[in-house]
Amino acid sequence: MKKTNKSKQLEKMASLLKCIAHPLRLEIIELLENKRSLCVSEIVENLNVEQSVISHHLTKLKDKEILKSTRDGKNVYYEIAMTNLSSVFFCIEKVAAAK
């Protein structure tokens, strides 16, 4: 069965939602929305989680092109690549807060 453009779009949406559907990934995204760009050690310090765990989640987010990174010497800085992501967060927060 051939996939339609709509079904491909829905698969991509589901994949993105699946990727961000982890509390720590949501925290990382929220932190980067507030701080713009941070290196791994700054993210570790802000979230008080082991560096290896943070790196794992950053890789997942980067693979889905939710985050992008730039290298400056020994440091790798991460920032939000999907500029519309805050709209998704806003909608999810409204739904989660509804009774």
CATH H level, superfamily name: Winged helix-like DNA-binding domain superfamily/Winged helix DNA-binding domain
Radius of gyration: 15 Å
Helix content: 55-70%
| Approximate shape | globular
Topology as H/E string? Answer: HHEHHEEH
Report the count of strand segments. Answer: 3
Name of the CATH architecture: Orthogonal Bundle
Structural account:
- Strands 1-3-2 form a 3-stranded antiparallel β-sheet.
- 64% of the residues lie in helices and 15% in strands.
- The chain contains 5 helices and 3 strands.
- The model has no long low-confidence stretch (mean pLDDT 91).
- The chain is α+β, with helices and mostly antiparallel strands.
- It is globular and about 45 Å long.
Describe this protein with a few key phrases.
99 residues; Arc Repressor Mutant, subunit A; three-stranded antiparallel sheet
Summarize the structure.
With 99 residues, the chain is α+β, with helices and mostly antiparallel strands. It is built from five helices and three strands; from the N terminus they run ααβααββα.
Write the layout of secondary structure elements.
Blueprint: H1 5-20, H2 23-35, E1 37-39, H3 40-47, H4 51-63, E2 67-72, E3 75-80, H5 85-97
Antiparallel strand pairs: 1-3, 2-3
